Amino acid sequence: MLSKFKKHLEEQFSKTLTRKILLAVSGGVDSVVLAHLCRQAGLDIALAHCNFNLRGEESEGDESFVLELADALETEIFIEGFETEAYAAGKKISIQMAARELRYNWFRELRETLQFDYIFTAHHANDNLETVLINLIRGTGLEGLTGIPDVNDCVIRPLLPFSREEIEKYARGQELQWREDSSNASTKYFRNKVRLEVIPTLLEMNPQLLESFAKTRSHLQQSSQLIEDYVSVIFPKVAKQEEYGYSFKVKLLQALPSTKAVMYELFKSFGFTEWEDVHGLLESQPGKIVYSKTHRLIRGREDLLLTVVSPLEDKIYTIKEDEEVVMLPMGTFQFEPAEELEKSDASVIFLDRDKLQFPLTVRKWQQGDYFYPFGMKGKKKISKFFKDEKLSLPQKENCWLLCSGQEIVWVINYRADARFAVEDSTQEILRLSYTP
Amino acid sequence: MLSKFKKHLEEQFSKTLTRKILLAVSGGVDSVVLAHLCRQAGLDIALAHCNFNLRGEESEGDESFVLELADALETEIFIEGFETEAYAAGKKISIQMAARELRYNWFRELRETLQFDYIFTAHHANDNLETVLINLIRGTGLEGLTGIPDVNDCVIRPLLPFSREEIEKYARGQELQWREDSSNASTKYFRNKVRLEVIPTLLEMNPQLLESFAKTRSHLQQSSQLIEDYVSVIFPKVAKQEEYGYSFKVKLLQALPSTKAVMYELFKSFGFTEWEDVHGLLESQPGKIVYSKTHRLIRGREDLLLTVVSPLEDKIYTIKEDEEVVMLPMGTFQFEPAEELEKSDASVIFLDRDKLQFPLTVRKWQQGDYFYPFGMKGKKKISKFFKDEKLSLPQKENCWLLCSGQEIVWVINYRADARFAVEDSTQEILRLSYTP
């Protein structure tokens, strides 16, 4: 098994051979075998063990066991205890989900602070088949049927080609010690049912089930790859990069041979899940929006507009008196004294210094905001101004206001306010330029 | 159920509503329900029943039953008896495979002779889930996981969205009669095991299993469609139509992002199954060939050459004396008397009529063939001639010889033989032209 393991590493993960690896170890046979194999293959590993404090003395026993294991393997070990039940209750998620979140968060934290290159976990072929069957039973797609990925970001699962049987045989052959996990079967209802009832029946029908499954998985991974390739051909054809994100021409999307399926592939990486709604945007009125956790897709006149849901939105930034260059998240402001008005464009305005009330503020617009557009008589609602200027929703949303007290000085990059304009009586002219 | 059935037909198979349909009926509940539903939906159906003579009296009982059914539904019925066991033994295939072949062959025959537009079969959602699980257990790919197709050429399965439970409930509700199939459980080992052991366990885990599966299937069908779309984008980029089939530039195939997966998709419709060999052609020496049942893929110098495995190859065609226009499978020959030699190209030669010995023959070349190339001194092996002319393997294979007795008159479309050339002494000049 060691030589098969080494060969697999060399073929698939040769870059890991000389790197620093954090190995997730529960104390169970899978992770113990993985630790031994890595050590024998000469990899630079450290162990990481989570104590979820879910099984009292047994959890403590696991912890002592992995300490001894680290000792025997002469590797570093990191151990962290978690209040898993409290965390699960606080976040209203299952114990399993909580343990999973806590584990991966801590691993990632360890990895960043201590500069590990990769995290290894001991998932094997049976885990993978179980996952795929669970996905199939619950309803899934191509991705769900390819199961646990061999590589996911910095997490690598080098035991995926090995069966539980192979792993246990190796452990017995090498006379390794490990801990049996007696965790409450009811929390693992689905997986245990698949493991103990479904898979044995399937194995009676095909004793080579795991080998067949490995081939199936490889075929599905190739199919998946082809779809990825196809989408990377289509993306630049239908999408255009914009200041606010991307726009997608509705007509081009509709002209594709399998519009709905392509839209699923195009938008899934932006976190969208409501596929009927996403697809429905093609036929809906301008202004309709579908949200994902991180993005929003807006129906424009002839486009779908994709923008990040901005975390900046409620913030108000201030600009103090006498600052010359002010760098804020949306862009840079530069104040300079000027002798006279020059020709300007949308990114430069000239102000009467004495009319400004410092500190100035920069904020997003709100319903009800109004200003006195320079070059016009009287006041106008910002919303009306945007409408007349035919701004798209993301353009509106990305628009910032420069304010003096409650008054708007500049709809940044669009129009100055007449109240702060330079007049014959102006003593001091301020030139203000903005770069996004 | 009738309204759901009508809706499904209208949405998916509206073209069938006014056509002539042949409905495969075993006498089991599925096909009986399908027949009733079709009749009530006002479709123009006739029944077709196969008696496989595998269950003695029971088979006879089925036959009488479907006769009565046709009577009650006032539809035409076709019944055919088969010697299934003898057929299976003769072809060395399983009884199930034999029944399947006999059934579909007969249906297609009936369809063609009696001008039916479609064949309906009564496969339902449970059949489909069983098929997918069997495929998964045996090892499969994306296609195997999408299961039984709704439409396959002229065969349509309009009950696929319905569960066995729905169908039986409808049958009981309408007080329909049907026949229970007691066919030998051992020949249906796999399917019965999946139906009676696997699926019940899965249903305990997810009572909505069939609905989830329908969604999974629709996702996989979309993935499958995307791959088809992608391949239809790639095909014209890497393939060039040739007289003998297609050529594929090796460099272009190698430059694709997922060469192996694309090659699988490109060549599977030509019947290839030996994927390692097909992919291996990219790296192999010119001349290497991989065969499918219908095609062959040949490694050329810079291309892969795809040709049909020709059924013409061993045939010898004859051309009688005094025929002016002779149409043969490979092309048309036209004989005309000529006064003098004209300028000619590869498709026209001039012969000394008196040197020919009729009937002439047209055949493929064989190892050992030689001729006296016009314009050269002495004789040359055909194989050497081809090599010197740098012909590709499919070009060689598609090359025909015109012979007079044992002597070669013309390597058609390439070179005439000097022995039959027009001389000063020629009495009668024959102009022979060839159009592929």
Characterization of this structure:
The structure is a homodimer of 436-residue chains. Chain A is an alpha+beta fold and 436 residues long. Chain A folds into three domains: 2-205, 3-Layer(aba) Sandwich (Rossmann fold), CATH 3.40.50; 237-308, 2-Layer Sandwich (Uridine Diphospho-n-acetylenolpyruvylglucosamine Reductase, domain 3), CATH 3.30.465.60; 317-435, Phenylalanyl-trna Synthetase, Chain B, domain 3 (Phenylalanyl-tRNA Synthetase, Chain B, domain 3, 3-Layer(bba) Sandwich). Chain A is 41% helix and 22% strand. Chain A has 15 helices and 22 strands. Chain A has helices at 2-12, 29-40, 56-73, 84-91, 95-114, 125-138, 142-146, 164-173, 189-205, 209-238, 250-255, 259-268, 275-280, 382-388, 393-397, and strands at residues 20-24, 44-51, 77-81, 118-120, 151-152, 155-156, 239-242, 245-249, 289-291, 295-299, 303-308, 317-319, 325-328, 331-338, 348-352, 360-364, 370-371, 380-381, 400-404, 407-411, 415-416, 429-435. In chain A, the strands form five sheets. Chain A has a six-stranded mixed beta sheet, sandwiched between helices. A five-stranded antiparallel beta sheet of chain A has the order 7-8-11-10-9. In chain A, a hairpin with a 2-residue loop joins β13 and β14. The longest helix of chain A has 30 residues, at 209-238. The radius of gyration of chain A is 30 Å and the shape is elongated. In chain A, 32% of the residues are buried. The A-B interface holds A 136-142, 144-145, 190, 193-194, 197-198, 201-202, 204-206, 209, 211-213, 215-216, 219-220, 222-227, 229-230, 232-233, 256-258, 260-262, 264-265 and B 136-142, 144-145, 190, 193-194, 197-198, 201-202, 204-206, 209, 211-213, 215-216, 219-220, 222-227, 229-230, 232-233, 256-258, 260-262, 264-265. Chains A, B: Its EC number is 6.3.4.19. Chains A, B: InterPro entries: Lysidine-tRNA-synth_C (IPR012796), Rossmann-like_a/b/a_fold (IPR014729), TilS/TtcA_N (IPR011063), tRNA_Ile_lys_synt (IPR012094), tRNA_Ile_lys_synt_N (IPR012795). Chains A, B: It comes from Salinimicrobium profundisediminis.
